């Protein structure tokens, strides 16, 4: 039996996250007409960082060593830092719908890089589903 930490099913959580991501993309596109992309990015990410550090401190768990934070900080600079910056800059030059279709290519790239760099096994089923998803994105992009 699956364990739910907050009483919400994983399916509901994932659908809710997708809906919130969609709403955020549309709102971001609208805000980019009056707010520069980098400013909007900082306004989106700063509250998240402040909240997460506040919760970490309030929870009273062990404090991380500053040396161990360097690799994590580098990951943060890559994603969300660079990835979100490029996304915001791209969103200023295209529609929210096209941007979302481009972001839909991310899972294909993750599967390919996980296989290439991490040597993670890629099953026939995963390849089939990944190709089907890529074809769906391609079909919608061409027909759009």
Structural class: mainly alpha
Number of strands: 0
Major sheet, described briefly? none
Low-confidence stretches: none
- The succession of helices and strands, N to C, reads HHHHHH
Number of helices: 6
Evaluate the radius of gyration: 18 Å
State the domain count.
Answer: 2
Distance between the termini: 42 Å
Beta percentage is under 5%
The global form is: globular
Mean pLDDT, nearest integer? 85
- Level of helix content? over 70%
What does the model show?
It is globular and about 50 Å long. With 144 residues, the chain is mainly α. Helix content is 78%, strand content 0%. It has helices spanning 10-31, 37-59, 66-91, 96-103, 106-118, 124-143. It starts with 9 loop residues before the first helix and ends with a helix. It folds into 2 domains: 7-94, no CATH class; 104-144, no CATH class.
